[in-house]
Design brief:
Length: 137
């Protein structure tokens, strides 16, 4: 199936109101406005980026941010499976490293020593529960 068609179908399902195509392989979802900025889905990689942003709209606002990114990546995997597409190792590795980066940011900002990262996310990024050390002021 044509990647543009997949984006069209999934955007309609997620009730995306506006799509802006951009250069480069990155994207942005404006959840409140239901608008996305995505690359043209010409390759599996750019399709994954487009579906990731559509996933943010479909899922809605989720906290913490790392979990929102994790769910958007799971959305991509689900859609690849539904459309019979192969999730290339490079794409899967990129997904994991991106979620790991978002987890690291959340942990870095955490001030509560009881802060816990969701176990399903830790399993996805192949990591252990981080220890939060409260900084002395």
């Amino acid at each position: 199936m044509d990647f543009n068609k997949i984006v069209e179908i999934e955007s309609q399902k997620a009730d995306v109101k506006e799509i802006e195509y951009i250069k480069g392989n990155y994207g942005k979802a404006y959840i409140k406005d239901k608008k996305i900025r995505i690359p043209k889905p010409l390759t599996l990689r750019t399709l994954a980026t487009a579906l990731h942003e559509i996933g943010h709209i479909a899922i809605g606002k989720v906290k913490p941010q790392y979990y929102s990114e994790f769910l958007a990546e799971m959305f991509v995997r689900q859609k690849f499976k539904e459309y019979g597409l192969t999730l290339k190792r490079a794409i899967a590795d990129r997904q994991k490293s991106y979620v790991a980066y978002r987890v690291k940011l959340s942990v870095k900002r955490a001030t509560n020593p009881k802060y816990k990262v969701k176990s399903e996310v830790l399993k996805f990024i192949n990591s252990k529960q981080p220890v939060i050390i409260k900084k002395e002021e």
